[in-house]
């Protein structure tokens, strides 16, 4: 058995992946673009809404005609007409005139404000009293209030949210240029691993990792491609890796954590021209027996066999990698992934490696409590119980009860 | 013009929706189940892993054979064989014997622990020294450590995460029973609204809301069905609503905020047998001009025309509603949606209504800062700039600079 000879820190692995390039772009319908990443800046070709728009139901008028108006001395205006929705005004307001206008309607020429219907009173057909003064532009959206022509509204690298779809619709962008989704080949290895449709014999287990990896890839915006279960022989591993390299951008091979199995994976990876080994072991616990290799812009991962370790390694490196491949501006930097909580137990750690602690969250008095879940990394059930992960820094010996920690919360 | 006559608080609306029933269930392949909600408890039919499993590379042995072992006085054992992965043991260990075992291998009969290879030394072929004592069960996962037979592993109402897919795979659940996805009919109304493929004339705007609603529905796990843009006439609104009711569980009609438009929506909704009006106006700002009606387990929503208001009303009510329809255990209670931040400006509010403030987040010294974004609810651009929302309670007059607030963070 060969021991790990190229153990790297997380930082070193990130550096080796720093120049991974985003994939090419594609044009897709706006309606399918939620969660995709913009491949170019979106500059507005026009002002929005493009006209003076009322924000209330009321009377469009010249503000100066209402100056000094009050309950006891209302301004008296004649109603010149009614503004229809979506139509250009057919009239021009003269001094002392106003026009009935609905919310969203376009102000007629001669009007610079809208008096709310609540502060008006109809005296007789065509005559209205306004009981409060309005200022110019009161209750009005100006032509370029929402969007100014030539303004960059959304930047290349933006992960599209519902409101981003909204502004793209407003600008008439029916087809969006987004980065292609990364494809991830998922291969399970191990003589003891059987398909989930099979009843395992003693000593065998069903293929758990390919399903957690499938879910993790989908969450990360990548397209998972399942290539099945292969045995722990050099030839099987090599041909599965070859298939993975030809069909995907990232090859995820999850398998036995034994040194023998890892050595075979390393051999299989190294058998391809142009493959460069990045790490043979990472200083992360759980997750140490991880192999990282690279062939140009493609990467190959020999993930630990233990389900918890595999999930943590994915969380640390692959969310970041898929972010880079999909052109995300700040991969995995989103603040929404974290919440602060108070640790309710001491946790030991070893300096010189990053430790990831599974925690369960609960509500304490005015704060969130994080309770560590201890358990071997082979037990997927500990990840079911957990709500998230806490990272313990390489240079920290542990955390204390009462410490405030940042919890990276699991999401579906 | 008719004013709102049935303005309800958010609490009252929630109460009227309290007895909404989850939709029926369907059986889907495990690989497609991420983000879906379990329709029944998953009870384990077996122990996992089902056998004594080594967590390290080393020697399987009887712990008592190593008691008292040290560097200077190692325990001497004979190697009876090597455990293969995924195979049942072909040998039984006798006193003083051990077997080479890889990580994940099954312990042979007669062994109750594993000594790590790091603490052993091969003397000659078939003879090994162990230099540290091991305890019974050290480096071993017991047959029911991960899952006990008969244990409920996942409860009905669980939103499936990657690790949940993993445990279901481990249990051999290839098809999962989940609640059906809710279908949401999206209808845009308003004479001024044009399709995004069209160039708006003066006074017209492109259909923004149907795209933000599309994205919001997808995020909430619902299937959006777009029924197009209809005019603000009773007959158009009625037939669009009819189509929506026949094809979906939730009808989302977004349109003009004018009282006239709202009255027509109300008339259209009320024209169907069995429709009960829940609210004609809600005490939420922005978002007041909202109509909520119900026909059995189906609901009809007349959403405000302003994009910001529509998004906030969706966030408050529809995330909750889709959670109920999809059978989610605790709809919209997930702690992951919030982060705590310090407000950097005073914000006024009006008692008697809930106010929602758009905020931008940034990192201050050791804390997250929330900066309010002020702007009319007709401006979708304010939602692009914002990172999330802060709710101001009905009974609060405002918030102060320096207050700690909970920010509901937008996600894609």
- Beta-strand proportion of chain A: 25-35%
The CATH class of the largest domain in chain A, by name, is Alpha Beta
Q: C-alpha Rg of chain A, in Å?
A: 31 Å
Instruction: Report the biggest beta sheet of chain A as strand number plus sense, adding barrel if it closes.
Output: 6 strands, mixed
CATH architecture name of the largest domain in chain A = 3-Layer(aba) Sandwich
Put simply, the count of helices of chain A is 7
> Regions of chain A with pLDDT < 50 over 5+ consecutive residues?
332-336
Structural class of chain A, please? alpha/beta
Structural overview:
2 copies of one chain form a homodimer. Chain A has helices spanning 10-16, 162-170, 209-219, 234-247, 259-270, 307-325, 381-385; strands at residues 25-29, 42-43, 53-54, 58-61, 75-82, 97-101, 113-116, 120-124, 127-130, 140-141, 152-154, 175-179, 183-189, 193-194, 205-206, 223-230, 250-254, 276-280, 284-285, 291-295, 298-303, 338-343, 347-348, 354-363, 368-373, 388-392, 398-399, 404-409. Chain A is of the alpha/beta class and 412 residues long. Chain A has 4 domains: 10-24 and 181-325, 3-Layer(aba) Sandwich (Molybdenum Cofactor Biosythetic Enzyme, Chain A); 25-47 and 155-179, Molybdopterin biosynthesis moea protein, domain 2, CATH 3.90.105; 53-141, Molybdopterin biosynthesis moeA protein, domain 3 (Beta Complex), CATH 2.170.190.11; 335-409, Beta Barrel (Beta-clip), CATH 2.40.340.10. In chain A, strand 20 (291-295) and strand 21 (298-303) form a beta hairpin. At the A-B interface, helix 2, strand 14, strand 15, helix 3 and helix 5 of A face helix 2, strand 14, strand 15, helix 3 and helix 5 of B.
